């Protein structure tokens, strides 16, 4: 993600770091590298079309994953998408 911010020429970019003790998500590095440039990537969830699609960025992604797991315990399918580059979809 930092490479995308550094290479941004047409829009302002920033790197926002946290001091929070956040969990490390198990997302393959090649998935992140390939899809972060597109603005978003799947971090958790159903391969088929889910009933719920949870979009989050930054420290909220791990909370969205927990919410998706709670939904699954209720028999609902969910997918979590990390969207570090919201402007790509505007």
UniProtKB/TrEMBL annotation:
<protein>
    <submittedName>
        <fullName>Transketolase</fullName>
    </submittedName>
</protein>
<dbReference type="InterPro" id="IPR033247">
    <property type="entry name" value="Transketolase_fam"/>
</dbReference>
<keyword id="KW-0479">Metal-binding</keyword>
<dbReference type="Pfam" id="PF22613">
    <property type="entry name" value="Transketolase_C_1"/>
</dbReference>
<feature type="domain" description="Transketolase-like C-terminal">
    <location>
        <begin position="39"/>
        <end position="90"/>
    </location>
</feature>
<dbReference type="GO" id="GO:0005829">
    <property type="term" value="C:cytosol"/>
</dbReference>
<dbReference type="GO" id="GO:0004802">
    <property type="term" value="F:transketolase activity"/>
</dbReference>
<dbReference type="InterPro" id="IPR009014">
    <property type="entry name" value="Transketo_C/PFOR_II"/>
</dbReference>
<keyword id="KW-0460">Magnesium</keyword>
<dbReference type="GO" id="GO:0046872">
    <property type="term" value="F:metal ion binding"/>
</dbReference>
<dbReference type="GO" id="GO:0006098">
    <property type="term" value="P:pentose-phosphate shunt"/>
</dbReference>
<dbReference type="InterPro" id="IPR055152">
    <property type="entry name" value="Transketolase-like_C_2"/>
</dbReference>
